[in-house]
Fold:
Amino acid sequence: MGLPEAREARLPGAREAPLPGRLLAADPARLPFVEVDVLVVGSGVAGLSTALALPPDRSVLLATKGTLGEGATRYAQGGIAAVTPAGRAPDDSAGSHLDDTLAAGAGLCDPVAVRVLVEEADAAVAHLRRLGVRFDQEGAGLLARTLEGGHSRPRILHAGGDATGAEIERALVAAARDAGVRVAEHAFLVDLVTGADGAVGGAVLAEGGALSLVRAGAVVLASGGAGQLWTDTTNPALSTGDGLAAALRRWLSAWPLPAPTISGSTPAPCRPSGWSGASRPSSPAAGRPGSSRPGTRSRCRRPPTT
Ligand SMILES: Cc1cc2nc3c(=O)[nH]c(=O)nc-3n(C[C@H](O)[C@H](O)[C@H](O)COP(=O)(O)OP(=O)(O)OC[C@H]3O[C@@H](n4cnc5c(N)ncnc54)[C@H](O)[C@@H]3O)c2cc1C
Structure:
């Protein structure tokens, strides 16, 4: 099938040593392969949401290195900050949520991204509810909300008290099973594979000690964070940054790496190539370098290649 080897790349500025494009020496063109329209890597809230949002006429494979639903998502506790009519303090607004977030970010936030976050929060919560997430409720059918640090109004929605992530994971796993999403568990993303034009055309997976190639029109990296790079972390053992590392080797959207957070979600700098649906993944996505969500400031940088 002949996917050519990618060029080596250099880190911008700080490093001069060329990075190998692949972790393994195995030639992807010689591996057994399957073909799908979209390969989603990771089965936390980002991966499951992405797989569920894809049009039904697309063939999808959701690959995850553990079991379905195993990830940081199930550990998320306090909840989701969202200004929504389903549970809103009377004097709250998306503008107030924006101001609070930028203030708490102390200059580290991308205001354009934060605006998307706060303005689309209501729709995102409604979508999760449609998928079966049961948020805690209070009188008159409204969603219960609480106050957390950095917020000037009580706007944190939660489920099962402080088991919000576990409830989201439960509902999304059930929805994925109901929708018949094709899943490969214990399938470890090793390398991304690029085509002649430099765009990602698939990935090498390791399953049960055997390597295989998935050829895909789009690859979505929803492989979570890298908390395990630090001595002290609340992240689970699988948050080892494998997807970011694979993207880094291929020089895609994972640069610059987002700063680690105690309990924040990872920003989504790029869209996968060929993505045409209305929904988007909420984790780093692999696609054509330089692609980005229309209307937002691109944070994707294509570093110089050698
Ligand atoms: C203790 C704790 C409390 C938190 N509390 C909150 C909170 O109150 N509110 C909030 O908004 N956020 C909270 N967070 C953060 C939130 O949980 C994460 O931001 C969110 O779950 C990330 O989802 P994700 O889908 O991107 O990643 P994950 O849920 O980590 O999923 C990553 C997936 O990728 C898979 N994967 C990784 N590498 C590979 C590979 N090489 N090959 C194949 N698959 C791979 C993993 O197996 C996993 O399925 C908390 C996090 C922790 C740890």
Residues 164-178 form the longest helix (15 residues). Residues 41-47, 63-66, 70-73, 75-80, 165, 188-189, 222-224, 234-235, 238-239, 242-243, 263, 265-266, 283 surround flavin-adenine dinucleotide (CB under 6 Å). The two ends are 25 Å apart (CA to CA). DSSP finds six helices and eleven strands in the chain.
